[in-house]
User: Fold this.
Amino acid sequence: MSTPIEDYAAIGDTETVALVSRAGSVDWLCLPRFDSSSCFTALLGTPEHGRWLIGPADEATTTRSYRGDSFILETIHTTATGTVKVTDLMPLGDARADLVRVVEGLEGEVEMEHEWIVRFGYGRIRPWVAHSPGHELDDEVITAIAGNDMLVLRGSRLPTAVDGHHHDQWTVRAGEHYNFSTTWFASYKTIPPPLDISSRIEATQQRTTEWANRCTYVGPYREAVIRSQLTLRMLTDSRRGGIVAAPTTSLPEDFGGVRNWDYRYCWLRDASLTLESLLKSGYVGPAKLWRDWLVRAIAGDPEDMQIMYAVDGGRELPERELDHLPGYAGSRPVRIGNGAVDQQQTDVLGEVMIALEDARVRGLVESDQSWAIQRSLVNNLADHWDQPDHGLWEIRGPKRHFTHSRVMVWAAFDRAIRAVEVHGYEGDATLWRELRDRVREDILDRGWNEAKQSFTQHYDTDEVDASLLVLPMIGFLPPDDPRILGTVAAVEKDLMHSGFLLRYRTESGVDGLEGAEHPFLACSWWLVSAYALTGQLDKGHALMRRLIGLLNDVGLIAEEYDVEGGRQAGNFPQAFSHLTLIGAAYALQDAETQVATTSEGEPA
Assistant:
C-alpha cells in the first residue's frame, strides 16, 4: 500500500525537496537539484527503490509540526514505553546538499529502527557502498557511489549492511541525542567536512523566520497564507532563480491511471503566478531573481520560446517512461521529462507580462535587456495571436481557440501598453492598442455563448472551463458585468463536484486522454476569488474554509482532491494550489475592506 500523499511532509533547502512520511521514511529526494534523478524513490515504488527510515520499531502515536515559520520538521512518536522526537531539515544558505536528522529521547525509552537504502537513477542503480574514514574531521562514515553521484552517511551510530540494505535497531532513552546526516556531492570531489548541526539548525530557523516576518498579509487565514508563501519560497531555486511547479513526478491525478506527469520544471505560467503571489505579500527580491532567470532562459529568437524550462534554464526536457517502477498506487507509466514542452500555449506570455507589470508597479526597474526581450516577444505575438493552441491545461487533443488563451493574449498587449505609457519604456503602443482591441472584440464575439449566458472553454463548444474565472481578476471585464456573473454561475453549475471544482468535464473528450480526474484545487480557490469579486462573500468564506480543511497536518496541499476517497491526489506540494490559496485570501480581505469602507461612508 502506498503511503497517502497527505501523510508526507516536505523539507527543502531551496534547491531540492525531500518528502518524509509520518512513519519517518524519506521516500523521495532528488539531489542536488529539483530536476536531478532521485536517490530515494520509494514514493513511486517500494523500499527497494530507495528510502531513509528513522522511526519507532513498535506501534506509535505520531504528531508532527514545523518549528515556527520554517521547514524544520519536528515529529513526536509515543509508544507504550516512551516518547521520542525526530527533527528533520535540509539546512539553508551553505551551498551544500545535506539532509539532517536528529533523534532525541523525551520520556522513557523507545526502540528505534534505522534503514538507509540508496538507489540512484530513480531507484534503478544500486551503488557501491562501503565504510570509509571520511573527512579528516570524521570518525567512520558510509559512502555510496555510482557515476557522478556520491552520498555520505554520518551518524552517532551507523547501521550495518544486511542483504544490500544498511539497517540498525537501538533503544533511545530520555535525554539521549543522536545526530545523522546524508550529504550529496560529486564523486570526483573530496568528501566535504561534517556539519555543525546545532548551528545549522539555528541558522536555518532564523533565516526562514526572518523571511516569513516580511510578509505583509494581515487578513483572515493568515497561518495558511504564511505556510503557502514559505512553500513557494521552498520551490524557488535560490541559486538559479527557477521556480518549479512541484518537487515530484508521477503522483497520479487518477489513481491507477495514466495521468501521471513530471512537474519538477519551471513553467513560465506557474512561475509568473507564483511571482504575483509573492509580490502581493511584499517580496520584491524573488521578482528580480526570477526576472533575471527568465531573461537567460528565453533569450534568443522569440519563435523558440518554450512554455517550460529546466531549473537552470535548460531547454531539453524529453519525456520518457521508467518501466522499472510500479508507480504510486500502481499508477503507470512513471514519467520523467514532459512532452508538453513542445506545445503551443498562447496564454503563457500574458501571464509573464502580468507578473512583470506587477513587479514594475512595486519598483522593479527593467534592464535594457529584460525590456527588449519582452518587447520582442509581444511583437512576435502580434503575428500569430489568432492561432489555435493547446491551452493552459496542456490538452493532448487537437489545438483549439481556447477562450482563456485568447484573454491572456489581450493581457499581454494590455500590460505592454502600460509599460510604455505608465513606465516610459519604448514600444509601439499604438499597434498594441489596436491589437488589444481586436482581440477583445474576437473574444466577445466568438467566446461568448448567448444561449448559455456564459463564456465557453473554446470557440467551438458550449462547455465551460474553470480558467474562465480569471477574466475579472486580470481586468478583462469588471466583476459586476452580467457576462462575468453568468460565467461564474455556469462554471459553478457545470463543474462543481461534491463541493469542489473540476477544471473541465473530461467526458467532453477535449484533452485526448483516457480516464477522469478529481477536483483541481486551484480552480476552487479561483472560485473563492470570483465569489469575493462578485460580492458573494458568504459563499467565498464557506468554500475557503472547506478548502483550508483539506490541507494536511503541516499545511501542505497537492494538485487535486479525491472526494470519494478522502485523499489528496497529484503532485505534492503543488505551487499552483498554494499560490491560488494566497490569491483567494487576498481577494476575501480586499472585498471585506471594500464592504467596510462602503458601510462607513453611508449616511446614518
Q: What stands out?
A: Residues 575-601 form the longest helix (27 residues). The chain has a mean pLDDT of 95.
